[in-house]
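## Example pair
The file below holds two records. Each record gives the amino-acid sequence first, followed by its structure token line.
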Amino acid sequence: QVQLVESGGGLVQAGGSLRLSCAGSGRTFNDHAMGWFRQAPGKEREFVAVRGWSTAYYADSVKGRFTISIDNAKNTVYLQMNSLKPDDTAVYYCAADPAFSLSQWKQGYGIDYWGKGTLVTVSS
């Protein structure tokens, strides 16, 4: 059974940092694109970051503040979030797919594996 399990969410003040982790199990994700989405209250889910073809891609809203990385030995993807803003408050979801299409990730469709999410709350 393939699973993605997120951790590291919590409450942080604006300007602070958090690091999210997403551990994969049930198969190796070394050859998968892995990334993050988020969904704020009352809003649609949106793309945050993905690492595919050994390159990282970011939404404009997080570029320069967030960093995605993958530890293949641990089957784990991370999201380092710095300079957090109240607008970053959301449930953050990890995702993975054996194929990689940046447009597919930016639109958030056709991705095979999803975690259940971890809540990040940024207070002002």
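Second record, same layout:
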Amino acid sequence: QVQLVESGGGLVQAGGSLRLSCATSGRTFSSDAMGWFRQAAGKEREFVAARRWIGGSTYSADSVKGRFTISRDSAKNTVYLQMNSLKPEDTAVYYCATGSRISNLRADTQYNYWGQGTQVTVSS
């Protein structure tokens, strides 16, 4: 089993920044990537960013490219999502997720473990 706990969400004005954290524990050695997803009210969950453990390749959605950065602190078993230049349309519940043998990092169905989510609200 793998446990994921997100933190760092909150209320911020447009143009501001937040850093989300995802603390991992358990059998994390069995996973090969970490992803961040978000779900706005009344909308489907969507891919935000992901990072592979081996090689460190990162991927991000076009809507956040150049503004959001995913990174990892191995010593702390924590993955971060740095969010800059936030926009009201970034408002959503943000989830981190992980899994093994993920071929398509943008597909939420390929992730086995999910955190509880953290709310991000961006005011205009």
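Notes on the second record: The two ends are 40 Å apart (CA to CA). DSSP finds no helices and eleven strands in the chain.
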